[in-house]
Specification:
- This protein has 444 residues and is an alpha/beta fold.
- The chain has 19 helices and 18 strands.
- The chain has three domains: 129 residues, Response regulator (Rossmann fold); 170 residues, P-loop containing nucleotide triphosphate hydrolases (Rossmann fold); 129 residues, Helicase, Ruva Protein, domain 3.
- The strands form six sheets. It has a five-stranded parallel β-sheet, with helices on both faces.
- A hairpin with a 2-residue loop joins strand 6 and strand 7.
- Helix 2 packs parallel to helix 3, helix 13 packs across helix 14 and helix 18 crosses helix 19.
- The two termini are 33 Å apart.
- The structure holds adenosine-5'-triphosphate and magnesium ion.
């Protein structure tokens, strides 16, 4: 237990009790802080995360029940234990009803306290593990659990275990660069650089210098030596982004370096062997470009050893449901706003929309909504007109039971201004069940 650094906040108006409990828990390896009032405890809870709060029930100003109420309404993923000095059990019963995990009646022994605390911590750890597997719909920083994206994960694994060239295709904003980085950082080249090169951004007259480098004086303006991208990525990976837009000139140069695995710096006569892995990406249909004579067939075959196609976002609706809460959480934290929620109809629209800009577009929209709506529930009217008009909301007769339940939950929540305790009372379910239902429907 010594290495256990779970954090506990002890709240009791008696300094003596605090001292005894603190010593006991500290010796058991817990990291303990103390507060003599509920108000001070709340300040500490706002300032840093704790795993468990152990609070006295009866205190001169606010009571332990007020603290439970605050925690249940504002903090997830933390447990509460109540201590009561009264043989009368009703306060403890109320505490449990309000969301305390356990209670202890004074006087209790050190062993009784520790055993209760260990039990609560065990439960917390188990639920966190469960939560982890629940949200581990993510690999390599790529969020998704659809069978389409799972296939992409398998390809990343395969590609990472070899050094063959890879072509990644997919619409704009589908995560091509994320996938390229995932392959590099999971391959045994990870300690050498990943060098992204945008093929559309190299002026034709600078191609050789940019790709292969130049020595000082190679041409007017070459005031010093310059290492080219291929040399920079030696031992690592070069990421040729937008390869479908590469000029014929660039295509020719790329083909040569890929075939020969050597480079010649401009102005130098020494050939350097290089060991650079190539990952290319495009939002264009390369075979089609080859057919039209706009892309060299020989280059296409060189880069297309493994080809990974990332499906458009609207083809994997289940990922939208996971990306939504992921971005809400990430962006509201980043921008210090309250997390937003979505009405059922808004969700319907978001999952059915075609998303021309894919994940990037989704992320941008959430960012805007998080800033503007700061904690509100997003309804249809809050969504861009282009989304609303592209979707016909299904009529009531076609709703599933789950949809009706969700909508009812959201209506009740709205009617009590988002107060989950009140909503749970109206719905006649406990707060935990309500929280689980909200989590499982939108994971928010
Ligand atoms: N599955 C995903 N999970 C989390 N974030 C994602 C996912 N897919 C894309 N993104 C995010 O969306 C944005 C666009 O991704 P990325 O730049 O990799 O796309 P792209 O296909 O290269 O786009 P483009 O064709 O416009 O260059 C990035 O911010 C990226 O982190
Ligand atoms: Mg890109």
């Amino acid at each position: 237990m010594k290495n256990n650094r779970h954090k506990i906040l002890l709240v009791d108006d008696s300094a003596d009790t605090l001292e005894i409990l603190e010593r006991n828990l500290d010796q058991a390896g817990y990291h303990v802080q103390t507060s003599q009032t509920v108000e001070n405890a709340i300040k500490k809870l706002i300032a840093e995360p704790f795993d468990l709060v152990i609070t006295d029930l009866k205190m001169p100003k606010s009571s332990g029940l007020d603290l439970i109420k605050y925690v249940r309404e504002n903090i997830d993923d933390m447990e509460i234990m109540m201590i009561t000095g009264y043989p009368c059990i009703s306060g403890a019963v109320q505490a449990i009803k309000d969301g305390a995990e356990d209670y202890l009646v004074k006087p209790f022994t050190d062993e009784e306290l520790l055993s209760a605390v260990h039990k609560v911590m065990d439960k917390l750890m188990r639920s966190r593990k469960l939560h982890c597997t629940e949200i581990s719909k993510e690999s390599y920083g790529i969020i998704g659990e659809s069978k389409e994206i799972t296939k992409v994960f398998r390809w990343i694994e395969k590609a990472a275990s070899t050094s063959v060239n890879v072509l990644i295709s997919g619409e704009s904003g589908t995560g091509k660069e994320l996938v390229a980085r995932a392959i590099h950082y999971n391959s045994d080249r990870r300690s050498a650089p990943f060098v992204p090169v945008n093929c559309t951004a190299i002026p034709d007259n600078l191609i050789e210098s940019e790709l292969f480098g130049h020595v000082k004086g190679a041409f007017t303006g070459a005031n010093s030596n310059r290492t080219g991208f291929f040399k920079m990525a030696d031992g690592g990976t070069i990421f040729l982004d937008e390869i479908g837009d590469a000029s014929m000139n660039l295509q020719g140069k790329l083909l040569r370096v890929i075939q020969n695995k050597e480079i010649l710096m401009l102005g130098s006569s020494r050939v350097h062997k290089i060991d650079t892995r190539i990952i290319a990406a495009t939002h264009k249909d390369l075979p089609e470009l080859v057919k039209k004579g706009l892309f060299r067939e020989d280059l296409f075959y060189r880069i297309n050893i493994v080809d990974i196609l990332i499906p458009a976002l609207h083809e994997r609706q289940s990922d939208i449901l996971i990306l939504l809460p992921f971005f809400v959480e990430k962006l509201s934290k980043e921008m210090q706003k309250k997390p937003i929620m979505f009405s059922d109809k808004a969700i319907q629209i978001l999952t059915n929309y075609k998303w021309p800009g894919n994940v990037r577009e989704l992320e941008n929209l959430i960012q805007k909504l998080v800033v503007i709506k700061d904690g509100d529930t997003i309804d249809v009217s809050d969504l861009p007109e282009v989304m609303r008009s592209s979707f016909n909301i299904s009529s009531d007769e076609n709703k599933t039971l789950i949809q009706v339940e969700r909508e009812h939950i959201y209506n009740v929540l709205n009617s009590v201004d988002g107060n989950k305790t009140k909503a749970a009372k109206i719905l006649n379910i406990d707060r935990k069940t309500l929280r689980e239902k909200l989590k499982s429907s939108y994971r928010l």
